[in-house]
Fold each of these.
Amino acid sequence: MTDHHQTLALLLFSVFVAVTLAITTWVSRSRHGSAEEFYAGGRLFSPLENGFAIAGDYMSAASFLGVTGLIALFGYDGLLYVVGFLVAWLLVLFLVAELVRNCGRFTLADVVAARMSERPVRIATGTSSVTVSVLYLVAQMVGAGSLVALLLGGTSQAARAWTVIGVGALMVVYVSLGGMRATTWIQIVKAVLLLAGTVALTVLVLLRFHGDIDRLLLTAAERSGHGDAFLAPGLKYGGSWTARFDFISLGLALVLGTAGLPHILSRFYTVPTARAARRSVLWSIGLIGGFYLMTIVLGFGAAALVGPEAVRGSNAAGNTAVPLLALNLGGGAGSTGGTVLFAIVAAIAFATILAVVAGITLASSASVAHDLYASLRRRHAKRRGEVAVARMASVGIGVVAIALGLLARDLNVAFLVGLAFAVAASANLPVLMYSLFWRGFTTRGAVWAVYGGLIPALGLVVLSPVVSGSPDSLFPGVDFQYFPLQNPGLVSIPLGFLAGWLGTVTSAEVPDEAKHAETEVRSLTGAGAV
Amino acid sequence: MRYDDPWYDALASGWAESTAAGVPEPRAEQARRAREEQAAADVYLEVQRSAAFQEVRRRYRRFVVPGVVVFLVWYVGYVVTATTAPGLMARPVAGAVNVAMLAGLGQFLTTFLLAWAYARHARLRRDRAALDLRWDTQELTRSVRGGAS
């Protein structure tokens, strides 16, 4: 890559950083430091704004870089990710968004703890929320690292490490100073930029093929060297039954995980009513659906125009397919058009990573301060203290995410996100569903549901080929791989539901009829919602 | 508009006051508070049993339960077919487009359609009744808690 790339991309990216920092300062100038303000941005965003912000939170580097890369390398099997990412929103819309907005306050634990003995439930749910967030953060950090490696020539490990550290530091600044209000505006700006960039690239790809999608697909299939097999499932997840079960596992995790992602749940609290929460989800389904349809075109476009060899040569996991496609669409390496387009796309991808990272950090610091700290500390402190804790927690989470991001840098971003989804679906979804819809659910059931999903999910990942026992693992030198699947969802999600049921039927506690009535009335009518 | 509310009082201050060496409440005050809590709980039980609420809940469930079943079966069926019967999915339909492509686009289409149908159903069949119930419930809880807050 030439110097022009770097200079221009860094310049554009600096502009984005400057703008977002300006937003943060401007917003925090008038902040009050209340929990309402810090966690929920004052709850007065409009459905349109929140819809863009949700889309911004969800359309992460994993989709933009990871999924397009998978499509470019494996054809149809990459497309299966996109379908799962989108269909998941129906579950959110039908069962989660309005009810959670009506009964909760800032975090997932608020919804669950209202019916239960508060302390153990809050600690369990807080722990799992923080775990999911950290896993998701690592995926974004890895994306940032790959992008910089591409930008600076691929070999500079130090530059990669510094980028991860820089992204981490910036996100801590956004979150700890600006809270939810700044984070939301950053998401909105980023969503608009990302959609604009994706639309532009899609139009260019289609123009290159004169609008003939058939030819685009055929060229991609031919260039891939797999022929028609490229356009059908099976290249990545075909063959052995292990791979097939792995895919079913991933599919389940994707569709059930979104409803348990803490940074998505916390977005519903930034609008005033459940109806506004529903309308923001509708906006986001439209935006996200359109975005994913375009990433399919971009993925096949990268396969057809750049070719899988070049994509793999730049980053083995395929994370750099879109920037390479941009370079090609603009006229190839060395041309002005290519340089400009490449720089724009790289800057947008950076912006995406920064914004998503800020959103997740905010949600997890809310879990730390509002759930864990509030339950574990002993002495009485004022509300203001909690916000201070949240600000400090964002620093701690930033440090953890940076460290893990440096460790996991060679894994595919979309795949890492799949893991985060699996943990969310196993630990957070069962407890949320049971407390909203099961009259007889008890405290022990809630605690068991969380740990019964969280511990198997994490344990199976540790025992999986991702961590050890194969050349691509995190620790290729050792072998303690006992679980064949890369994604634990197929086993751990049913375990989470089972543990919740088992804990409930074995506990001596009589479920509180009145508390259940209160949850049900509140969740469906919005009575008493803040 | 804000209401003093037992639901959030418990969250915001309950654990802190009970575990900290806060100012002990007079016994009469405690008893009055317990009575109020009980009365508020009764309000929710009463609303839950009311015909109006049962109707809202029935309408919600009658749309959501079949909806969730339909899209989950359709999605899981799609994923399982893609992994177990790639031959069927690879069957060409027209040009480069095969069954797999159509099924994938079909998933997008059904997602948009179901989302639209849900929003329409909620707007036309549920929102008005839920809002009425919300105000009624809040009126009731406020009155048992000793007037407007």
Note: The CA atoms of residues 260 and 526 of chain A lie 21 Å apart.
Amino acid sequence: MIQWRTVRHLDPWIVLVGLALAGFGALLIYSASLTSYPEGIQGLSHPTVRHLTFAALGLVVVGLVAWLDYRLLGQITPTLYAVALVLLVGVLVVGTETYGAQRWLNFAGLSIQASEVAKLLVIIVLAKYLADRQLEIGQLRTFLGSLAIVALPTALVFLEPDLGTAIIFGAAWLGMVAVAGVRPQHILAFLATLALSTPFVVVALMGDYQRERIATFLNPALDPLGGGFNMIQAEISIGSGGIFGKGLTEGTQTQLDYLQTPTRDYIFSVLGEELGLVGALLLFALFAFLLFRGLRTASLARDPFGRLIATGIVIMILFQVFINVGVNIRLLPVTGIPLPFISEGGSSILMLFVALGLLESILLRHKQIEF
Amino acid sequence: MDFFSGGRRWRSQKPKRREDAYTPGRKFLLLHILIALLFAILTVQLVRMQVFQSDDYQAQAEDNRLREVQVLPMRGLIYDRNHTLLVENVANYSAVIVPADLPTKEEAAVFARLESLLGIPAQEIAQQVRERREDGNPYEALVIKDELDRDTALILKELTSYLPGVDLQVETRRNYLSGDLTAHILGYVGRISAEEYAASKDGGYVLNDQLGKTGIELVYEDMLRGEPGKKLVEVDASGRQQDVLDSQTSQPGQNVMLTIDLELQRRTADILREFMGASDNAAAVVMDVDTGEVLAMVSLPSYDNNLFSETLSQEELDTLLSEPGKPLVNHAIAEMYPPGSSFKPITGLAALQEGVATTSTTIVSHGYITVPNQYDPSVVYVFHDWAALGPLDFYGGISWSSDVYFYYLAGGKQDEGFQGLGEERLARYARSFGLGEPTGVNLPGESAGLVPDAKWKEQTVGEMWYVGDTYNFGIGQGYLAVTPLQLLDAVVAIANGGELLRPQLVKEVRDCHDNVVATFAKEIRRRLPVDEDYLAVVREAMRQSVSTGVAGSAKVPGLEVAGKTGTAEFGSPEEAGGYDTHGWFVGFAPYEDPEIAVVVFVQQGGGFANAAPVAARIFDYYFHQRYVAEQEAP
């Protein structure tokens, strides 16, 4: 399907940085799971081993997806959209509940986090929709059509309830329509409507669970031993890490169990405590580098479809990082979002490598025209 | 820089780019800026937290992980004078909750698990936890149930790793080896009350702590308690100890050696129980005449002070409180009774010292004397003697316990020109013998007794003092009231030649290495204001009282006992015209060189029938049987 010579178009940095982040994550998961696995790594079920296994699988996935022509995906977008919706409805109906939200689908012995898969599928569907309408991109119909495509899965995710992923859907859509070239007036009008309807959303659509989280965010002292506890402890962990951190596996907050889900949503607190500001800046640099490489991919894409997919992926990863870290350092209310490549969780890491594979696939084909 | 600007390395791409139909450059610039901006926001917040406020957060993290824990000292032991152990410390397992460590969401599940293990309703536990939180002490352990049996304790120990906030606390409990035999002396320890805790917060007590509540346990609390130690421990988020970072060992309490002779105490209790019959209560005290050391102090009925080491149920407490014999009260020191004739030696000594009588003062008892009403001579009051004893000298007056003889000495007989002591002088002498004031024995709850006089009667009863009051006073009746220990202490002073002593219960205090840290020497409260010769007269009169007089039931073969009985009337007259009586005996032995003195009090008993025989058995044991036992001991 592809010419061997085009392999030189691949961007090795994307895969290398993805693997570096996964390795970074494995170190932090190792430290964060010492309280549950005081003996260290003793078997394949250890979270660190699982994380590295998923990363290795991810490498294979990158190869497969890169080899596959992403444009083929454009031909089956109705199916992809259907799969995304089935997953999201399924998780609401038969999902497993953790921490007050239904997020997991148990399927053939695997736990799949539906929204992780749906995110990428919806980005592809949306990219196709916008790419097909480059000529009528300025029309309100196109704008509203794209909004409709993203609104349905967003609403389903919101019902789980998973406010964070809902925001990521919204952010990805906004970035993609902007890059696709919709009229700025449409975007501004939409944002204005959103701002005006916010009070209505808070009162009528948000669950008690979400309102409580926001209230606790504004004043964690309301509930210092309950919901506020995690926020306060995450803040203390990071703040007490200082510039250089207490050293890997040496963080008192982490090792004495003060953090909830330290291998997942609060893994940044482990990093902040044990590796300090230096470790956090290293993480930011890796992410920024990866995202810039993603934007480079977008700018090199041969067609709007590829460009929009790359844009969507960059925005998805960017907002996931921002929201996750923002929650950890008390800039944002608590919402459960994994830190890409770092947090424990197979669905998340595999889908991220699929995303990297798509970027490579786009790069691989951007010069087909040469031949 | 090269990586971000995009594709310069792919030279072949360059010309094509210009032809590209799409011009996304400006939008990607915005996205670059967005990425930079979002990471900048995160970085600013991180720098604020990790650079500028780091010290503050570090302090909070230290607060989280470090906890100072008190290590309770081993409480001192208590021995009798012969080194017989009276109380030991045994392990007590209790289930405790540290409210702050409970998982908020699964709290109810924890309570439910405890309910099934301990049988305490979950609601009750929740209520206690709520109260402790409201008190603002969520880190102080709350005892849910103590006295767990070993099996339950082991199960709980296993469970603590799954039930955050729940802990097994191992404490020591007092086990009183002699139980009810020494309960009134030793007292007991109990959980510190909220008020006691507030009052002694710097004294090293923690909530749930134990401290002496009464008896020696209370009075010698400071010595028995010891110095608590401290431990700086690292705890995890559930409050479980991970590591001990620093510790300062506790200092065990000091051991107290009593003056009590446990075997004598046991004999005294047995004998007293045998002779008290159906009386509600009785008391007996044995004291060393020279030193004031209390060798035995028995109050019946008694109670088992081990009940208070465990958690006493309200019903058990109510039973103890509602018993007519008031088992919680130490009748030897805490309640006062009219001494009756056992007071006559004091009236007699006052009369000799004041010159009201001499040994040869002879008075004839016709069985009563009469006193005309001072305003209406046709009204005549009659004061009875217990028999028409005929002419009696001083010795006869005491040994036959003539009431008439002491009516004369106390109140005089105006129509015969006999000047008595009068209430003022009688009260003064009574007080000089230590009546009307606590003896200062090292036990809580001692009664001061009551020595009446005209002023007191006017203020309290609201009536004037009559000659009849003086008559009653002279024979230990009327308003006069003493505790058995007070009466004994007064007679000890008569026996030892005039030294009014402070009764001692503690011989010495030793530290945990058995070094003596304090000894209690004899303490003279004052000398009696009576000549040595007169004391000898009264001692002789008391000897006669036992050998030839009315106290014959106190006789011990082979031992010269001196003593005085008393059968004190109290309450209102019975239908037959008589009164209910208390039986008393107070005396010492051997007569020539007194060693010990004994007081026996039997409520609703007689001096001759109940009290004196008890004293005789005690003297017999002390001088004849115990000696043999001691010779055999190594």
Note: Chain A has a mean pLDDT of 88.
